[in-house]
Design brief:
Number of helices: 43
Helix content: 40-55%
Strand content: under 5%
Protein name: F-box domain-containing protein
Radius of gyration: 37 Å
């Protein structure tokens, strides 16, 4: 290999930029600079050295499969014979390159052969540099440190071992020197090798945590350089920010270096340096650190001081004078940091207080305002001028802030105390805030207790909230009391308004009230009130439960935040509140009966329900005592024990505080090196036997999985260990193949799914999905919940129980087939259950001996029920037979009448009282043979439901209101109470086409689902939506061009630097116009009938959009443009664009899937062009747009920027 070739390959492979660092681990990456430095050094050497380098690189290039940098270091460390031996090992164990997917990601066979001591020496050659502990490392991104952190990306073993060297052996120097802050209220992070490519103070949270790179928490050895000079309030040194982000790190040693007198600017002035007491305040941020065994304070040496600290205008002192703290203060600080005493973290204390206060507010905008409180924003009242043409200013105003509400003002004072690290002042403001909110909390707690007591009384048999009760009569008085309690509970959440706040609200009363009227709670309260007036009790109970759940969600959030108020305080802190749980901190379970806690005076025991009072006690009639109370005593006791275990009798604060304090002392242990697992060394056959022992059980394929006596399978212990799948990816892949590929799963298609919407099987034994309407059985086909159950799509062996003569038999089979039609089915057994009724003959008697008429009726019924199986393909083994006696569940013969079809029940038909003793005989029919051949074949099939779902998703992507999207899947036969507020229902062509398609989708009759008619409806809707899609695409393209032009250096959207204040307003105007044009294109196209329906709603339709994030961002963007706030304009511009891009990309994603389920060559599959015209990705705001100018690229290719990469040696830098 020639030297030219070698140099070309080096220049090609070493073009790493900082943005290509490991995700989440910004490290020191100087491979590019170091190689450029080596190249410059090679150019200056003689021809002999060049020849030597050529031989050196040629020898190292033979080590394929490992990074080039490691090959170079190995060639320097090993002799010729050793190098040849290593080469042979590489060729034997690493036949592929690192980039090959066949390469293992957990470990490297070559590294396993090298002793750990040798590997550590290799990592030190690549990742260790003592210059990281000198000022040379903080000189900027042009400094070459000759480190190769890219080696950490090879595999996990390299990463774990290399991390210990990079962050455990190196000592990182941090320059905490004074520097001016251009952003008031922020504290610049110090200069170090970790922050050369990143300014850490770009983002600041409410708690003051500056955005720090994740690599800082892994550093174990620090050298912190401080200055003892006097600094103003606008000057920061970064020490506070550093300590806020490393107080949880595992720090082994730390040196605090103080710049001596005689080096910094104005060193001769007496007012430049602080005294010993003020120097102790400079060290105060260090007091939050603990368990650092090696901690020293000394004077900084000259090579440890940053060049910006040196004085340019005056000469340095002839002799430097060390500046050290008072010995007493030094001993106290060292003892504190080396110890493990508890520490109060004021930032965490403020976060908990902020969370507690925010939970009392319901408007999300007002919650965000609490996070961004500033003293300037308080008491800045605005005048209301009715002559103004725009009200955007008042739309975004917050009356609680403009009127200096006690909560907001006190919270702002607490935030200031937190930023000043004033713990005592913060606690004083926190006490004031908690005492102010305490009366409201007590009112909420009292109202909640009254409401819960009332609900407990009525959540019993024959009560108003009896589970599964769907008819309520003569309950006016109970509903009246329930409504009063609900209104009291809702009013208790209203914030206390002071006089100044009421005055500020009066200026924008309609707007302020509309904010709350649009919330779900107020809408549910209005629905309850309307249902109460109309005496629609079913609807009243439904909305009442939702309203209570909404308020309980806020109440439990307040209680949860209340528990954590003092989590970060010392144990000796005086608490203003005593958290004692008066009620169970859980949501109300409306689906279970409330246990009766009344005491039976005769037996002195808890009273239990009678047999007809609860479904849980229907099977306990075999008690030896023969008493109804004693028959259900066991169940009641279990319920009481279960609920008593949930009650938290402790305040929950001390344990949580101790856990948090212990986490400070318990440092994060380094990741262990990857090693070869014992399971990986075993043969595959042995591993499969182990997984079968853990994950295989034949009982999954028996009818016992769905027995009612066994709690529908929930009480059965299968002795399976699925937790083994979480160990690693290899275990998961091999275990899933056993769990879902070897087991046979039994599933019933017998019971009506109107109550729980799920078929009974082992996978659904713990799943219960409440049906919105009990008697609307056809709605089950609109939303198939079985397909959402994890694991159903992986099952390869099925045993299906079908009852053809049972009501909804075909409906159940349709749902099951739609759920597994995409599965890889290896075997499927279909067992036909017996049936007795007055209308149909018994299948147990059907067969060759029966009459032709009997066989004909049974065969037609079986064909009708089994016809949905025709959508299945490529099944392995398919068997259709009668059910054996042990395959018939117990609920078929227990005498219930609910499972009968309505016709048989009305005639007085009863169930069989005994189970069959032989296999059920099937009638003679050729259809079963035809069906088996069809299911086992591989012919093409069009899935009606998949085409419908693709059409539905595309139409829903154009709609932004959540309720309107859900209405697209509701048939108006069921009269949803919210359909009247939807102006598109019955007036818009898209909704009309979807409604017709939905009715076909929900129709369970054979032949009702006409795919040709569905495609015609889809074509009509797509044609109508195509005009809007073209407008959206054009608006998006225009906006993207603008973003590309401005996402460059010096542009409005520059990712590196903030936009200049003197930026031309014309650029903002253009961006604002494009954003509004983009937003208008996403508004749905309205027909005249739809416009009329919107007018009838009297502004309710427009109010739905006022509080959406897109509209809020555009309004704030408009205000920022008017006020000249460039940063605010850019921030809200990005939010608005991201929100609209999310909807646009959802439309494009659904558009690509429109014709995926159509047969090839279909006429309707080429109606529109679904190919992407641009990259379907979100805009990356943090990346500079690449310059596509050919001339500039040519200059860069010729080495036009080579001078910028040239680095200085350490000696030259010190001079």
């Amino acid at each position: 290999m020639s030297s030219d070739t070698i140099q070309t390959s080096e220049s090609t492979n070493n073009t790493t930029i900082p943005d290509q660092e490991m995700a989440g681990e910004p490290m020191v990456n100087d491979q590019e600079d170091s190689l450029q430095y080596e190249e410059s050094q090679n150019n200056e050497t003689s021809s002999d050295s060049v020849a030597t380098d050529v031989t050196f690189h040629t020898l190292a290039s033979l080590l394929h499969g490992i990074p080039a940098a490691l090959s170079i270091q190995l060639s320097q460390m090993l002799s010729g014979d050793q190098f040849i031996r290593v080469q042979e090992l590489i060729q034997a164990h690493l036949p592929t390159t690192v980039g090959d997917p066949a390469m293992p990601i957990d470990g490297c066979p070559l590294l396993e052969l090298i002793p750990i001591e040798c590997r550590k020496q290799i990592w030190e050659c690549l990742l260790y540099n003592p210059l990281l502990g000198e000022s040379f490392a903080t000189g900027g991104y042009g400094v070459a440190l000759e480190l190769y952190p890219a080696i950490l990306r090879v595999n996990k073993q390299t990463y774990n071992e290399g991390m210990d060297v990079l962050y455990g052996c190196n000592r990182f120097l941090v320059q905490c020197i004074p520097q001016s802050s251009y952003h008031f209220g922020t504290d610049y992070f110090a200069l170090s090798a970790l922050t050369r490519y990143q300014l850490l103070n770009r983002v600041s949270t409410a708690a003051g945590d500056n955005n720090i790179i994740p690599a800082a928490k892994y550093v174990q050895h620090w050298k912190i350089v401080l200055s003892a000079t006097e600094r103003g309030s606008y000057v920061g040194n970064g020490l506070a920010s550093l300590c806020r982000n490393i107080y949880m790190a595992d720090i082994q040693s730390m040196e605090v270096l103080i710049v001596p007198r005689g080096i910094e600017r104005d060193w001769g002035s007496a007012e430049t340096y602080v005294d010993e007491s003020q120097l102790a305040l400079t060290f105060k941020p260090l007091e939050r650190l603990r368990s650092i065994q090696q901690f020293t304070i000394r004077a900084a040496e000259f090579h440890e001081i940053h060049v910006d600290t040196l004085s340019y205008d005056e000469e340095l002192a002839e002799e430097f004078t060390p500046i050290l703290p008072d010995p007493v203060d030094e001993v106290r600080l060292v003892t504190l940091i080396q110890g493990n005493s508890d520490v109060e973290i004021i930032e965490e204390m403020y976060k908990n207080l902020l969370t507690y206060v925010q939970n009392f507010e319901r408007i999300e905008e007002f919650k965000l305002d609490m996070e961004n409180l500033n003293v300037e924003d308080l008491d800045q009242s605005s005048s209301f001028d009715i002559t103004e043409t725009s009200s955007d200013f008042f739309t975004s105003s917050n009356p609680f802030i403009s009127s200096s509400h006690p909560v907001e003002s006190t919270l702002c004072a607490a935030k200031i105390a937190m930023e000043e690290d004033n713990v005592n002042g913060f606690k004083l403001h926190r006490k004031t805030l908690i005492l102010y909110l305490e009366p409201q909390y007590e009112a909420i707690e009292a109202c909640s207790k009254d409401l819960v007591d009332f609900i407990k009384n009525e959540k019993r048999p024959e009560g108003f909230f009896e589970p599964e009760k769907h008819y309520h009569s003569k309950c006016g008085d109970t509903a009246n009391e329930a409504m009063v309690l609900l209104e009291d509970y809702a009013s208790s959440f209203a914030r206390k308004l002071e006089r100044k706040t009421r005055v500020a609200i009066r200026k924008q009363k309609l707007l302020f009230n509309s904010r709350y009227d649009a919330l779900p709670r107020e809408q549910l309260l209005r629905s309850c009130e309307m249902a109460y007036e109309k005496q629609w009790w079913n609807r009243f109970v439904d909305n009442y439960k939702k309203a209570v759940d909404d308020m309980d969600t806020q109440y439990l959030a307040i209680r949860e935040a209340r528990k954590k108020l003092y989590a970060w305080d010392l144990q000796s802190t005086v608490r203003e509140t005593a958290f004692m749980p008066s009620v169970l901190d859980e949501m109300i379970d409306w689906e279970i009966y409330e246990p009766d806690m009344r005491v039976n005076e005769e037996w002195l025991e808890y009273r239990s329900y009678a047999r007809n009072e609860s479904q849980e006690h229907e099977n306990n009639h075999e008690s030896d005592l023969g008493d109804d109370e004693w028959s259900s005593k066991r169940t009641t006791t279990k319920v009481l024990q279960k609920q008593s275990q949930k009650i938290d009798r402790d305040n929950g604060q001390s344990s949580e505080r101790n856990a948090l304090q212990a986490s400070i002392r318990k440092r994060k242990a380094p990741l262990t090196a990857g090693s070869t697992s014992t399971m990986e060394r075993m043969p595959l056959e042995i591993r499969r036997e182990i997984f079968k022992y853990l994950l295989f059980n034949p009982e999954l394929g028996t009818a016992s999985c769905v027995h009612k006596d066994g709690g529908w399978g929930s009480k059965i212990k299968y002795d399976l260990q699925p937790a083994i799948l979480r160990v690693c990816k290899e275990f998961y892949a091999e275990g899933v193949e056993i769990l879902y590929g070897e087991n046979r799963f039994f599933i019933e298609c017998v019971l009506s799914t109107s109550g729980h919407l799920l078929h009974r099987c082992a996978l659904t034994r713990f799943c219960e999905i409440a049906s919105p309407e009990r008697f609307h059985s056809s709605s089950e086909l609109a939303t198939n919940h079985l397909r959402t159950v994890p694991g159903v799509k992986r099952i390869e062996h099925w045993k299906i129980l079908i009852a053809p003569m049972r009501s909804n038999g075909r409906n159940n089979v349709i749902n099951l087939c739609r759920s597994i039609c995409q599965n890889r089915i290896k075997s499927m057994e279909i067992a036909i259950a017996p049936w007795d009724s007055l209308e149909h003959p018994s299948l147990s008697r059907g067969g060759p001996r029966e009459s032709a008429e009997t066989n004909k009726i049974a065969a037609e019924r079986i064909q009708d029920v089994l016809s949905p199986l025709e959508i299945l393909r490529c099944a392995g083994k398919v068997v259709i037979r009668g059910a054996d006696p042990d395959e018939v569940p117990d609920f078929l013969f227990e005498g219930e009448r609910r499972g009968l079809d309505f016709y048989s029940w009305s005639l007085g038909s009863h169930w069989r009282s005994f189970a069959p003793h032989t296999r059920v005989s099937l009638p003679e029919t050729m259809y079963l043979t035809h069906l088996i051949e069809l299911v086992q074949g591989d012919s093409e099939v069009e899935l009606f439901h998949e085409i419908f779902y693709a059409f539905l998703n595309y139409a829903q992507a154009f709609e932004r209101i959540y309720e309107f999207r859900n209405h697209m899947t509701i048939d108006d036969l069921y009269h949803s109470p919210y359909l009247a507020e939807n102006p598109f229902r019955g007036t818009h062509p898209v909704e009309s086409a979807l409604l017709k398609a939905l009715r076909m989708q929900m129709n369970e009759e054979a032949g009702a689902q006409d795919i040709s008619e569905l495609k015609i409806l889809r074509s009509n809707a797509i044609t109508f939506l195509e005009r809007q899609y073209q407008r959206i695409q054009q608006a998006a393209n225009d906006l993207v061009r603008f973003v590309k032009d401005q996402k460059v250096s010096g542009g409005l959207l520059d990712p590196v630097e903030s936009p200049p204040f003197e930026l031309s307003p014309g650029v903002q105007s253009e961006g604002l116009a494009l954003v509004k044009n983009y937003a208008e294109s996403l508004d749905r196209e309205l027909t005249m009938a739809t416009k009329i329906a919107i007018c009838r709603l009297n502004g309710q339709y427009e109010k739905r959009f006022e509080l959406l994030p897109r509209e809020i961002a555009i309004k704030k963007c408009t205000n920022a443009h008017r006020d000249g706030d460039v940063e605010g304009f850019v921030a809200n511009f990005k939010c608005a664009v991201d929100d609209m891009d999310t909807q646009y990309l959802a439309i494009r994603n659904a558009r690509r899937r429109l014709f995926e389920c159509d047969l090839k060559g279909s006429v309707h599959s080429t109606e529109i062009d679904v190919e992407p015209l641009r990259c379907d990705e979100r805009i990356a705001w943090n990346k500079v747009e690449p310059d596509m100018d050919v001339k500039k690229l040519e200059i860069l290719g010729r080495g036009g920027l080579r001078c910028c990469r040239k680095s200085l040696s350490s000696d030259a830098y010190r001079e």
